[in-house]
DNA sequence: TTTTTTGCAAACAGTTTGCAGCACA
DNA sequence: TGTGCTGCAAACTGTTTGCAAAAAA
C-alpha cells in the first residue's frame, strides 16, 4: 500500500491529513524497518520537535483500525512493545532471531494454503493473520554453539563457592 | 505434555514443586481454555485464597522459559494480556473470532511445511512458532451482516443533527 | 539447615483518556 | 466555521523487582 493510497483512504473516511500524520505516515512507509511506537516517536521528533508521544499512539491506532498497518510482536524480542509495518498485499511470516534480533520475512505458499484451509475448514472469514517464528539464525547458531562451549570448558563460577550470608 | 512430565522437568532443573505451583500447573493443564495471568490467578485463589498474583507471573515465566507452556496473544482480543497453554508436540494455529471471541485450533500440513521451509530456506533453527488468525467465525458472519443491515436501514443518529456547541 | 520460593509493596513499561486550545478542510 | 486533532497531565493495565519471612529438600 503506497503512501498516496493511504492518504486517499484517510480522506475518504473524513479524516484529516495533519502535519503530524504526514510525518508519521512517511516514517512508517519509508523505513522498511519494523518500528515500535517509541522509536517512531523519536524519529518523528527529529522532524517536529513538538510532536507528542500520544499523537503517535493515536495515529497508530487509527491506521490499525483502518487496516492500513499491521501490528507485530516479533515474539516480544526486546520487550512488550508492538511493531508496525504498512500492510502489503502479500501475506508473509516474520522470522526473528532471538539472539541478534534480525528479522527476516518469509513469503511462501504454505501461508496462502494455510489461510485458504482455514477459510474452507471453518467457514471462517480471515481479516488478520500473523505468523511469527523465533529461533536462531544461521549465523547465531554457530556463535551460540561456541558460547555454550566456552561456558562448559571454563565454568568460572557456575556454583560460586558458598559465600558468607550477606550481613544487613 | 502431561502434568507428570512437567513436574519431572521441574525436579530435573532443581526447581521445587510447591503447593502454589501444583495448583497453577493443574489449572493450566486441566482447563483446555486459554487462560491469562489474571484469570489463572482468580481460579488459583479459589483453591488457595492466600496465593499472590506475583507468584502466578513468576510461575508462568518459569514455565515459559522452560518451554513447558506457550504464550499467545490471541490477536489481543480482549486486551493486551497474554494467554497460556501447555505445549503440545503438534504445532497448531489459533483462529479467533473477533466478534464472539471463540478460539479454534487448526492443525494441518501447511504449518509443518511452513516450519520446514523456513528451516531450509534460511538455515534457521526454529524454537518458537506462533500463528494467530483473526476474523469472523461462520456464525458471526451472518450476525454481523444483519447488524450492518440494521444500521443501514435505521440510521438513528449517524450524523446527529448539529447540536449547539457545548457551553463550558 | 540451606537454598528456593513466597507475599507484600512499590516500581515500571507501554498505552490510553479527559480536556482545553489549535488547526485543517 | 466547525469538527477533528493535538498536547499536556494524569490515569490505567499488565507485569516486574527488592526484600524479609516462610517453606521445600
Distance between the termini of chain A: 61 Å
Oligomer, anyone? homodimer
Shape assignment of chain A? flat
User: Any low-confidence stretches of chain A, pLDDT <50, length ≥5?
Assistant: 156-168
CATH-defined topology of the largest domain in chain A: Arc Repressor Mutant, subunit A
Average of pLDDT of chain A: 88
Reported CATH architecture of the largest domain in chain A:
Orthogonal Bundle
The tally of beta strands of chain A, per DSSP, is 6
Based on secondary structure, the structural category of chain A is alpha+beta
CATH superfamily of the largest domain in chain A: Winged helix-like DNA-binding domain superfamily/Winged helix DNA-binding domain
Taking the sheet with the most strands of chain A, its summary is:
3 strands, antiparallel
- Give the spatial strand order of the biggest sheet of chain A: 1-3-2
Q: Proportion of β residues of chain A?
A: 15-25%
Sequence of secondary-structure elements of chain A? HHEHHEEEEHEH
Amino acid at each position: 500500500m503506497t503512501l498516496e493510497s493511504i492518504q486517499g483512504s484517510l480522506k475518504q473516511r473524513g479524516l484529516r491529513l495533519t502535519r503530524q500524520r504526514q510525518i508519521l505516515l512517511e516514517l512508517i512507509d519509508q523505513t522498511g524497518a519494523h518500528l515500535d511506537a517509541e522509536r517512531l516517536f523519536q524519529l518523528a521528533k527529529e522532524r517536529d520537535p513538538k510532536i507528542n508521544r500520544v499523537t503517535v499512539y493515536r495515529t497508530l491506532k487509527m491506521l490499525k483500525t483502518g487496516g492500513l498497518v499491521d501490528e507485530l510482536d516479533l515474539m516480544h524480542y526486546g520487550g512488550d512493545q508492538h511493531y508496525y509495518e504498512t500492510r502489503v498485499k502479500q501475506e508473509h511470516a516474520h522470522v526473528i532471531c532471538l539472539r541478534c534480533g534480525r528479522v527476516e520475512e518469509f513469503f511462501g505458499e504454505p501461508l496462502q494454503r494455510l489461510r485458504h484451509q482455514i477459510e474452507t475448514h471453518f467457514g471462517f472469514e480471515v481479516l488478520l493473520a500473523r505468523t511469527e517464528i523465533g529461533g536462531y539464525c544461521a549465523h547465531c547458531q554457530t556463535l551460540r554453539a561456541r558460547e555454550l562451549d566456552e561456558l562448559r570448558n571454563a565454568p568460572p563460577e557456575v556454583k560460586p563457592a558458598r559465600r558468607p550470608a550477606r550481613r544487613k
